[in-house]
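Hey, can you fold this one?
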Amino acid sequence: MAVDGNWNLTMTTPMGERQATLTLLSSGGTLTGTQGADGNSAEIFDGTISGDAINWKVSITNPMPLTLEFIGKVSGDSMNGEMGIGPMGSFPFTGTRA
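Sure. Predicted structure:
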């Protein structure tokens, strides 16, 4: 699938822009992989792909324990969408193929 591979993410957060890496693998409508930032890496979960629509979640511990929910679209070598940070709301993210 077009989404498979390594991505560099830029997330706009209440603490400013944050960078992350993302490795994705699609199988049918399921999306799996890992996401890393600040030297930490975690498995993504609840990942789905349908056409150009992608969704996944990842649990982080830094700067505080949170589950981030990403809802976006992929187009060629770029992706963009919204990252939900629980009670803090949603913020934009972009990604480019690494």
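The mean pLDDT is 94. Let me know if you want another pass with a different chain boundary.
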